[in-house]
Amino acid sequence: MRGIFPHPMLTTALFLAWLLLAGSVALNSIVMALILATLIPLATQAYWPGRPQIRHPLRLVSYIALVIYDVIIANIQVARIILFMPAERIQSAWICVPVDLPCPEALALLAGTITLTPGTLTAEFSADNKALLIHALHAPDPDATRDEIKSRYEARLQRIFR
């Protein structure tokens, strides 16, 4: 099966993404999703020399649920900041977050999580991929924000990936 599906997780993600984009589970959508989910990983496998080793797939599901929850809460917090906080009280900050993740996919997932969460944005990776530069809309205590990212997201990603 590895010959046909060199990256099963990518195949699954592409399949589900296509069905979500199509907004239908009709036969033609399923066939197109299957074609794309098969051909794209085959065409790009040369660019993926290593595969991330996911130690605990159920923890990945839990992580995704956590991120969805955090995105909802962050939307409410950002709306409150923008609508009710005087501009002079908003304390934007650039925060350097040191990271120690086992693979580039985990690092990309962390950066994507930060960017998806309203009020924060991953601006840059360090050359050695050992730090992320984050911009926070409102971070009165940048150290606490850094520590929250490390404990809430990075620690979970370290347990998910080998």
Report on this model:
The protein has 162 residues and is mainly alpha-helical. It folds into 2 domains: 8-47, no CATH class; 57-160, no CATH class. The longest helix is centred in the middle third of the chain and has 28 residues, at 57-84. A 3-stranded antiparallel beta sheet has the order 1-3-2. α1 runs antiparallel to α2, α3 (57-84) packs antiparallel against α5 (142-160) and α4 packs across α5. The model has no long low-confidence stretch (mean pLDDT 91). It has 5 helices and 3 strands; from the N terminus they run αααβαββα. It has helices at residues 8-22, 27-44, 57-84, 104-116, 142-160, and strands spanning 93-98, 120-125, 131-136. Belongs to the CPA3 antiporters (TC 2.A.63) subunit E family.
Question: What characterizes the major β-sheet?
Answer: 3 strands, antiparallel
SSE-based structural type: mainly alpha
> Which percent bin holds the helix content?
55-70%
Number of domains: 2
Q: Supply Rg.
A: 19 Å
Could you tell me the strand content as a percent range?
A: 5-15%
| Cα-to-Cα separation, first versus last residue | 22 Å
Itemize the secondary structure elements and their pairings:
Blueprint (H helix, E strand, L loop, with lengths): L7 H15 L4 H18 L12 H28 L8 E6 L5 H13 L3 E6 L5 E6 L5 H19 L2
Antiparallel strand pairs: 1-3, 2-3
Helix pairs in contact: 1-2, 3-5, 4-5
